[in-house]
Automatic annotation (TrEMBL):
Annotated keywords: Hydrolase
Xref: PANTHER family: PEROXYUREIDOACRYLATE/UREIDOACRYLATE AMIDOHYDROLASE-RELATED (PTHR43540)
Xref: Pfam families: Isochorismatase (PF00857)
Residues of the signal peptide: none
Domain of life: Bacteria
InterPro entries: Isochorismatase-like_dom (IPR000868), Isochorismatase-like_hydrls (IPR050272), Isochorismatase-like_sf (IPR036380)
Positions of the Isochorismatase-like domain: 6-151
Name of this chain's protein: Nicotinamidase-related amidase
Length: 183
């Protein structure tokens, strides 16, 4: 099967990002917006995943994407209720219909929906690129209970840099090294 990537933009919604005081938000948004422009230029599909649930009902204030990442007509928007974007959604059917073989994972929150999307994508048969500077999480200090956002992001980049799935390619790349034309 020919290499066919898709860019996943996960949960970049105003309420989630502002409530959590997302780490390095402006830089992350700029990276993801730049990737979206490059994906468009390369004819790569963009899929925006949008969390909703009791704490964030569909259509409620804050449910919308941050302005720079507002989906366009040509983007696919998929609503999800779980950290795993394949549960009770059309994501797999959409990826398969588009002939996608590899997903580039970006968005919020690193240790929740971003990690779940990357692992689930591998389990569903897709190669994965975790965009090292294209995901973020809630800002927090290092404590006995939690590591800082910067350390969590670095940790996940490191883990996905060494994780192995038989028959799958798993890479961690900075956005500057993402090449939509080759695996």
């Amino acid at each position: 099967m020919a290499h066919r990537p898709a860019l996943l933009i996960i949960d970049m919604q105003t309420a989630l990002l502002t409530r959590s005081r997302a780490h390095d938000l402006d830089a992350t948004v700029a990276v993801v917006a730049g990737l979206r422009e490059r994906a468009d230029a390369a004819g790569v599909p963009v899929i925006a995943l949008q969390q909703w649930g009791e704490k964030l009902p569909q259509g409620a204030p804050g449910h919308e994407f941050v302005e720079a990442l507002t989906p366009r007509v040509e983007d696919v928007v998929i609503a999800k209720r779980s950290a795993d974007p394949f549960i009770d959604t059309t994501l797999k059917a959409t990826l398969d219909a588009l002939g996608v073989t590899e997903v580039l994972v970006t968005g919020f929150a690193t240790e929740f929906c971003v990690e779940s999307a990357a692992r689930a994508s591998l389990g569903h048969g897709y190669d994965v690129v975790l965009v090292a500077d294209g995901h973020t999480t809630m800002e927090r200090e290092d404590t006995d209970e939690y590591i800082s956002a910067a350390r969590s992001i670095a940790h996940h980049n490191q883990i996905f840099g060494i994780i192995e799935y038989p028959g799958r390619s798993v890479r961690v790349l900075p956005s500057s090294e993402v090449d939509f034309s080759s695996p």
